[in-house]
Amino acid sequence: MSEGPTPPGAGAAPEDTYTHGHHESVLRSHTWRTVANSAPHLVAHLRPGLDVLDVGCGPGTITADLADRVAPGRVVGLDRAEEVVARAAATCADRPDVEIRVGDVYALPFADGSFDVVHAHQVLQHLSDPVAALVEARRVCRPGGVVAVRDADYSAFAWAPADPDLDAWLALYRAVARSNGAEPDAGPLLCGWARAAGFAEVEVTASAWCFATPEERTWWGELWAERTTSSALAEQAEAAGLATASEREAMADAFRRWAAADDGVFVVPHTEVLARP
Ligand SMILES: C[S@@+](CC[C@H](N)C(=O)[O-])C[C@H]1O[C@@H](n2cnc3c(N)ncnc32)[C@H](O)[C@@H]1O
């Protein structure tokens, strides 16, 4: 895959604010991710020898898994945030067939048709112009290749037992994301975004994460408790005047109550799109 000329969108990329940031509590969630639990729509389309771009790769655990599945194909993980690119580089340090680099989804530093698979997991929901990002993903995808995206729909998160402080947390997250020009309820919108980006063929599926065992509840409840009080989400909520520190502490306590409940269940629904140029 060759470095291309300056891409068409270069210089015009929106300066989006990434709602989650890369606090340790956020990375604790992202480093759990694999192809099996986060890219089920793509599994049947991966085979040895494919060239793959993982856009918005975060800490790179999905990237590394993709590399295992397409070896000896080349895999590039790209993310805008230098701090998490360093983390992804460490994740993939023992894989000579993986390149990790800083870059922007709005202006990918690759020639047209460089990759068989362009993958983005939980990235489009954070962008103010997801259609522009998909146009750029389509540009670097080879004829016959596939662009694979997956995003959650925060409005459809479901949990038991009910807790008004968790309702308040969800409302806060969605308000902060919207204040950043992002779309927290992106999942069902992916199909329309792909069509608007000019893809000829768009295949839509859905799947969910479910956290219900004591171990899963402890992990999910604690990391969200910390994210709500200590991560970029907390800072942005404070700066925008959307929640005070004591309100955020109450939300964190609600996550710990949920984690301690024997009947606690948390479901995170996702929509996936496989789009072909
Ligand atoms: C929710 S994380 C997902 C990380 C990884 N794909 C995963 O699922 O574990 C979103 C990632 O997209 C990156 N990102 C946000 N805006 C971006 C942009 N314009 N270009 C490239 N990466 C971006 C963030 O830095 C972050 O690491």
UniProtKB/TrEMBL annotation:
SUPFAM superfamilies: S-adenosyl-L-methionine-dependent methyltransferases. GO terms for biological process: methylation. Keywords: Methyltransferase, Transferase. CDD domains: AdoMet_MTases. Pfam families: Methyltransf_11. The keyword Methyltransferase applies. GO terms for molecular function: S-adenosylmethionine-dependent methyltransferase activity. PANTHER family: 2-METHOXY-6-POLYPRENYL-1,4-BENZOQUINOL METHYLASE, MITOCHONDRIAL, METHYLTRANSFERASE. This is Methyltransferase domain-containing protein.
